[in-house]
């Protein structure tokens, strides 16, 4: 019997690494994207894993109701990974109402709405999983990223509450809290700024694979006694 995972934000670098690692672990995948089509990724996975299914789904999570609309296209799942998101570097006084709405919709409302609908399939499976890719800033906050830190902190609060609600159903709900991961989202930083940040982190900068490895740990039977936890993947930046 095929097992399906939903990867929200599969077009990002972290999301793509998660998708590849889940496919290697024999998951069939619903792959959510918005601005960057997943044709190449889907074709590669279909060639590598011909016995599995890889279904791309487009949804703009900045739009109200898009999480629910995406969920209507899914017909079974025992795992949801929330890797969708975007950064916002602004002082709060310069943050617009539109900025706040986008952060809320993309990072929390639409992912939670999607999970709310997809979870109706969880009873079919003895073990199910929900994992949010949150952020170190959701734990400790960041100047110039106040609004972003707030929605990332809200993700962590959701994880703890939903883990309590779903434990009797066999659903493990956890979060991964990455530190500084070297992705294109961070390429606006100068080399000097990157060196300064790297010097602060005992194990240096992280990679998308580091996050994907943590997801693999949480959803493939290696961490089934964990729920409601925040797994810090930050190289010792925050202990």
From TrEMBL:
Organism domain of life: Bacteria
Pfam families: adh_short_C2
CDD domains assigned: SDR_c (cd05233)
InterPro entries, A to Z: NAD(P)-bd_dom_sf, SDR, SDR_fam
Family of the protein in this entry: Belongs to the short-chain dehydrogenases/reductases (SDR) family.
NCBIfam families xrefs: EF_P_mod_YmfI
The protein's name: 3-oxoacyl-[acyl-carrier protein] reductase
